[in-house]
Amino acid sequence: MKESVKKRKLRVLIVGAGDVARRLTTRIGLNDRARWWGLARSGDTAAALRQTAILPIDGDLDFWPSLKRAGRLARSADAVLHLAPPPGDGNDDPRMKRWLAVASTPARFGRGEHATSRKKKTALRRPRALRNVYVSTTGVYGDCVGERINETRRTSPTNARAKRRVAAEARVRASRARRFSILRAPGIYAAERLPVERLRAGTPALIAEDDVFTNHIHGDDLARAVWLAVFRGGAGRVVNVVDDGEQKMGDYFDRVADAVGLPRAPRLPRALLIREVSPMLYSFMSESRRIANRRMKHELRLRLAYPTPATLLAKLKPAAALQRPLL
Question: Which CATH architecture has domain 10-105+122-192+216-245+290-304?
Answer without folding.
Answer: 3-Layer(aba) Sandwich (3.40)
